């Protein structure tokens, strides 16, 4: 299948010039030790204060959903085809009329700039340099206008309360900034119960406690490389992009209140956004096929099947399990998957189950934490190289040649 649906198939692989064979990009010495996405995640665990690493890597309550994202991949094995001429293979995928160089992107991750210096900018610039999509979060700490300038192809992700008086001006601001793709996250009706954060001392708003001070003092690379550097160069971080105007600072007690009535967000609000936003509109966090049917009737342009990286409702299944059923009812609209992708083989399994595109979260932010933009670019290269190699090994030349016939349930 293709990202645009069945009508718009990409050029057959056989017509691709053999000259499009990839050669591995040169790796600077300070990045050479990172050989897989897991290497970045391990390094970020050392670099960050425990409370921030817990926020980045953790799930919710028992971590059932976080673990299900990995379990769901482990339940599938490949049945590769042999003797396929794979010299014309490539990793390009088209989505919403744009051809990306790799079959994956970077999803929205709030508070990135608290973990990596200028985190949102770093992620979006790396995505632009490598020609993959990046979604900026409503909970980000750098103004959306600045992100749009750095990467005119970036997408915007909203967290919205069920209040038209806040929805309309926010949508207008996003349009004015030039965003052409709007993602409404629909699985954050309330803040989830992330006990690990509370145990580690990570609270929103951040409280200037002894624990925070001590964790900063024992992680000087983060303290000086991110926190004090941010304060010195840009001042106290604010939630810049939840509304039409600037939100509260990260230390503010007003923060919970600023979230508003997110539990009141419902279908009429999606209709309202659809009427107001002229570009591509997606919903993120959908798991039930009936919701896909309803959103399709309202006129959304695509779906992000996701359990929010196992960070919201504990027990919510991995979106991978729902992918085939959702693709069936999506009527050719792109169905995008995220959650637990750590290897090229995971990307391939998601595509074989019907994904039109996938997003990879924690490892990309981890790369930004430890090596900034060059680190994220290295992480993108590594994953892209894995997919490129795996295509040959499975016997295919392009992502749209993958289908369920390449998979077997092993558990
Ligand atoms: C630190 C962090 C912050 C996140 N913030 C947001 C957010 O602001 N909005 C959102 O829709 N999803 C958010 N997510 C979820 C991601 O967009 C994505 O669904 C998830 O990370 C995918 O799983 P993965 O990290 O296993 O790849 C966040 C995830 C992480 C790890």
TrEMBL record:
Gene3D superfamilies documented for this protein: Aldolase class I
Region ranges (Disordered): 1-26
Limits of the FMN hydroxy acid dehydrogenase domain: 29-411
Bias type Polar residues, positions: 11-22
Record: residues binding glyoxylate: 55, 159, 194, 308, 311
Cofactor or coenzyme needed: FMN
SUPFAM superfamilies: FMN-linked oxidoreductases
Active-site residue list: 308
An example Gene Ontology CC term for this record: plasma membrane
Source taxon at top rank: Bacteria
CDD domains, A to Z: alpha_hydroxyacid_oxid_FMN
Binding-site residues for FMN, renumbered to this chain: 108-110, 137, 157, 185, 284, 306, 338-342, 361-362
GO molecular function, one term: L-lactate dehydrogenase (NAD+) activity
Tagged with keyword Ribosomal protein: no
UniProt keyword annotations, A-Z: Flavoprotein, FMN, Oxidoreductase
GO biological process, one term: aerobic respiration
Database matches in InterPro entries: Aldolase_TIM, Alpha-hydoxy_acid_DH_FMN, FMN-dep_DH, FMN_HAD, FMN_hydac_DH_AS
Pfam families on file: FMN_dh (PF01070)
Positions in coiled-coil regions: none
Family per similarity comment: Belongs to the FMN-dependent alpha-hydroxy acid dehydrogenase family.
PANTHER family: 2-HYDROXYACID OXIDASE 1, S -2-HYDROXY-ACID OXIDASE-RELATED
The protein's name: Alpha-hydroxy-acid oxidizing protein
Species assigned in the record: Neoroseomonas marina
